[in-house]
Amino acid sequence: MRCFVRDVMSTALLCLPDGTPVTEAADVMRRTGVRSTVVIGPGRPAGILTYPEALRRVSAADGHPPTLREIVPDGSMAVHPDDLILTAFEMMRSHGLDRLPVCRGGVPVGIVTLHQVKLSSAVRVVSPWRIHLRRRVPGRDVDHRVTDARVR
Q1: CB 127 within 8 A of CB 89
Q2: Of 49, 92, 137, 140, which has the maximum CB count within 10 A?
Q3: Helices 51-60 and 22-32, interaxial angle, to 10°?
Q4: Which residues, 6+ apart, have CB-to-CB distance to 72 below 8 Å?
Q5: How far is CA 113 from the centre of its chain?
């Protein structure tokens, strides 16, 4: 059974422009209950800012809070909803990320987290570098071929 990013991604999405002050971003995330926001750069997603990171930046700001442009590196990494979960897993592992924006045609449509990938019924994490892909068999799940996801 093939499992796609669209099967596990979260579509509750908050997007903020990269010129937004971090204090405003933290306040919006607190009020909406969203734990991360997609930072939008010039015409495309620039990265993701989490609520804990926003709070750290707010507490470290000395009078003049930085903008999201100054905090979030322009990684511009994203996955497509039709990508396999393994693709998202490999991208997260190779770049040391725990979440990625999901974009269709350059427009953010969701977020996928490492936690969501691990909880997927199609994936069982064996170690940080190896996962088992699950294949559904009526009445039980069977672990099939081990897929190597080592960082190269």
Answers
A1: no
A2: 49
A3: 140
A4: 18, 39, 46, 47, 48, 49
A5: 4
Query: Is the whole-model pTM more than 0.70?
Result: yes
- For residue 17, CA distances in Å to 38, 45, 57, 89, 132 come to 9, 9, 17, 27, 38
Query: What does the pLDDT read at residue 1?
Result: 58
Copy the structure tokens of residue 94: 């190779």
124 φ/ψ angles, rounded to the nearest 5 degrees? -130, 120
- Residue spans of beta strands (DSSP E) within 18-82: 36-40, 45-50
- How confident is the model at residue 16, as a pLDDT? 92
What structural domains and CATH numbers belong to the chain? Answer: 5-148 (3.10.580.10)
pLDDT at residue 26 in the model: 92
* Neighbour count for residue 63 (Cβ, 10 Å): 4
H-helix or E-strand spanning residue 93: helix 85-95
Q: Which pLDDT value is given to residue 72?
A: 82
